[in-house]
Amino acid sequence: MLNKPIQIIILCFITLLPISAKEQIIIPTDDWPPFRITQNNTYSGIDFDLWKELAKRLNTQTEFKYYPWARSLANMKNGTVDMMSGIAIKKERQKYIKYSSVPYYSCSPVFYTQKGLGKTIKNYKDLKPHLIGYVNNSIYFKKFDNDKTLKKRAVTNEKQLLKMLALKRIKVIIGTDCQADYEIKKSGFQNMVEKTDYRPAKKLDLYIAISKKSAFINRMDEINQALKDIIHEGKIKEFASKYYK
């Protein structure tokens, strides 16, 4: 039997042991309203609401790190981050990430042009004469993504694209309607830009992705079930309603 002084020492040691911390998901993020809104070191938007709900159901914590989109993908590849949101399926990416079994949101690729020029682009062939702005490392639709005959100019984000279009620095851009329409309204560009008559009959599904080098890859089934439950309960629509007013 231990004497009293030793018992006291052991009890003090146990008391001082740190409480087991929750697992932490490291998530790269950029600015992509209304999904990811970063202002004054604060985060809001559909994706951040989704991460909060997922973390609660997975009994984890989240840590966000701000990177440009291309850098976020590179970090997913090398495993310095765990998961990211708002990502479309691309064969090349499947080498280093695993997608959630279901998408949590769907958008459509849309071409935008300067006000008054929308009717001049009625089909895909009408894009040929134009320099088309797009976001680097983004996926829109296969025909456009793989077309090396079109003149294209890559930029960092859609906000930059829309500003270039509104200021008449470029005539045509491609964007995703769920983001670009939000940004056009918020920036007051409604009288400066418009959608083209040509509308690709495509859908862009957004997924949660996990780096294959992340320890969370072992919780893929649990993550998929939590995401399905969130969608089934109408939480995504609830999150979106706060930003699309």
From TrEMBL:
Source species, domain of life: Bacteria
SUPFAM superfamilies assigned to the protein according to its UniProt record, in alphabetical order: Periplasmic binding protein-like II (SSF53850)
Record keywords, A-Z: Signal
Sequence ranges assigned to domain Solute-binding protein family 3/N-terminal in this UniProt record: 24-242
Species whose genome carries this gene: Arcobacter roscoffensis
Lineage: Bacteria, Pseudomonadati, Campylobacterota, Epsilonproteobacteria, Campylobacterales
Protein name, as recorded: Transporter substrate-binding domain-containing protein
Record has Mitochondrion as a keyword: no
Signal peptide from the UniProt entry: none
